[in-house]
Amino acid sequence: xxxxxxxxxxxxxxxxxxxxxxxxxxxxxxxxxxxxxxxxxxxxxxxxxxxxxxxxxxxxxxxxxxxxxxxxxxxxxxxxxxxxxxxxxxxxxxxxxxxxxxxxxxxxxxxxxxxxxxxxxxxxxxxxxxxx
Length: 132
Prior knowledge:
Blueprint: H1 15-24, H2 40-45, H3 48-60, E1 82-86, E2 103-107, H4 108-117
Antiparallel strand pairs: 1-2
């Protein structure tokens, strides 16, 4: 790369050029565009309403796994990744999706155990082989 394009001299780093590139690659113009097929669930998980629900569940449970009691203490050991679990299924009970009483704070390990115990209804409504 020539010296003229390194660091601050790089035209692609100027705000007006970046804006022009961004505009040129939005939506259907982007190479990775697939027709706006982002799943509803993914949109919801990244939405403000879901994030607010998740934080409310964590706060209510004092950022502690409600099964094993693990809690992340900053600077006092290994951090614990917490997940907000829907007690009643997200898919089956849409009216309960953002009810704080339908959430529980779990560490990743306990959440994985819960998910293994809950039969799935994928593949045309059939339960997974593990739960027959």
